[in-house]
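Technical appendix A lists one of the benchmark inputs used to test multi-chain prediction within the project. The record comprises two sequence entries:
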Amino acid sequence: MKNKIKTIEEAVEYIKDGMVVAVGGFMGTGSPERLIDAVVAKGIKDLTLICNDTASPGKGVGKWITNRVIKKAIVSHVGTNPETGKQINAGELEADLVPQGTLAERVRAAGAGLGGILTHTGIGTVVEEGKQKITVDGKEYLLELPLKADVALLFGSIVDKKGNVYYKKATRNFNPIMATAADLVIVEAEKLVEVGELDATDVMTPSIFVDIIAQ
Amino acid sequence: MIQDKDKKREIIVKRVAQELKDGDLVNLGIGMPTLVANYIPEGIDIMLQSENGFIGLGPTPKPGEEDKDCVNAGGQPASHVLGSAYFDSAMSFTIIRGGHLDMTVLGALQVDQHGNLANWMIPGKLVPGMGGAMDLVAGAKKVVIAMEHTAKGEHKILKKCTLPLTAEGEVDLIVTDMAVIEVTPKGLVLTELAPETTVEEVIAATEAELIVSENLKVMNV
């Protein structure tokens, strides 16, 4: 069995300035806090972030806002982090605001090998600007394109040594979707167990998606 | 016309709660809409969705009983009731966008007589992002707006929204501290008045044209 286990510091060695990084979590819940901290400590810069939100100062990817790790945020919500708004208004941070369901489906499309998805969400709003509209059975849809990352940073409540992941309660959110849509997938394990201890029926992200288990 | 702020809110959320049907799956927006959960009518069993990833949202846990893995869509400590289910964000928005959500209740900055809704941004101010609001309004079977009828005397129910839209033509019902208004193909129909409120007061507080229902009633709140 390939050894995927590395330290948190070893794991973030793979992240380079300017990369597109997808991070699991919703307002910080289900975010890999130790990996996020290690990226700050390493002084990585100019990342493009794909995440549901920018959390709040001191929590989750909110720490990347405060420490100016990212140059662009592709997120659905920034309202809970006043620092994000300040940086956007000052022209220091680019933000691409995407409806939450569209964000999930764009990432899923990238992971599933789809050329995009059609959604009614955003029709008649600023979201439709510059996008192709397609009518199916008389209803108008926007063509939303796949969203792929160089690296995904995820948080697993229980991870076995092969890389199978189980997410507790509301920590799941974007984690299993992002696991499918990055060239390199790093999972921070809250609890690492032997293969077999996590029942195969309870696996939410199959091990084949996981490249590195960070401990 | 009711003046007391708390009384206004109570009327709005009590009246919205009467829209709930047994077995409904409902998503309540942040702020006043969450209070609807306190007034679920007797004998009505509903499930609340939390769009960060579960159905069966329960009461806010007592201090010291929070579970770090269970939060609501505002990121605040939450709980789940018996029979709940957790899932990922793609499933959550499959529920919302696939027509599996019976009703969503949201606040509004503006709503107009075509059922257009503006509730996510004010140009020139800090933009919070739409979160799941655009998906909820476009996807839910029934969209109910719960809001005060005017904002510091300014009209909120307009002929045409002037703020950037959240969705086009998706609003079904507007419940305010003054009235219940249905969005129909013919226009806005005033169906109910709040207690101590007259038709003239509602018309004066509404920029949009109102059709007064032949069966106009007083809210039972």
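Residues 13 and 42 of chain A are 9 Å apart (CA to CA). Residues 5-115+146-214 of chain A form a domain with the Glutaconate Coenzyme A-transferase fold (CATH 3.40.1080.10). Comparable benchmark entries are summarised in Table A2.
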